[in-house]
Amino acid sequence: MRSGLTNIQRCPGCWDTLIIMAIKNAFKELGIESHQRVVVSGVGCAGKASQYIDWYAAETLHWRAIPFAVWTKMANPELTVMAMWWDGDGYGIWLGHFLHACKRDDDITYIVFNNENYALTTGQSSPTTPVWAKTKTAPNWNTSLPMDPIALALTAWAKFARKADSAKFAELKEIIKEAIQHKGFSLVDVTQACPSFKRW
Predict the structure, then answer these.
(1) What is the pTM of this model?
(2) What are the boundaries of each domain within the chain?
(3) Which of 41, 197, 174 is nearest to 122 (CA)?
């Protein structure tokens, strides 16, 4: 689908746009043309991100972005394949897909839009919500320690796992470029602002 960033329907002030622009610029600087890449996403705040850049895109079923990306790479190993998701599903609902992709070292890039809450469903605690944060499901404070996605990926034998911040655009773009060029599974966990529901 060919579409511009002006069509993105987001909460006011959402930082998804910066992540999408960093990905777009990374592909441009690496010289990877639209017909050479596939981006897979699912449902959630990052769900439609795959549709906002000129490339082959698939907005898949809930919990199925990584399997779909892996199957795409298996079907055509020449393609550059990226899966985009968010912390609630990526580190919670379908954590098993993530861990096995790390273990198998599947040759895909996995970008996680980490706003530390289930923002699409209006601000419940997610696996990465800080322990002291107040959320819709933890009105006093969140009592669960947040997951460390980088440590978890490395424990599952991932060879490339990096943290990035959407506020540091140039650094984010360079980390994404490194992830795309890495042969094997690569995780980029992107911390992002969520002005509607992340108030900590």
Answers:
(1) 0.92
(2) 8-191
(3) 197
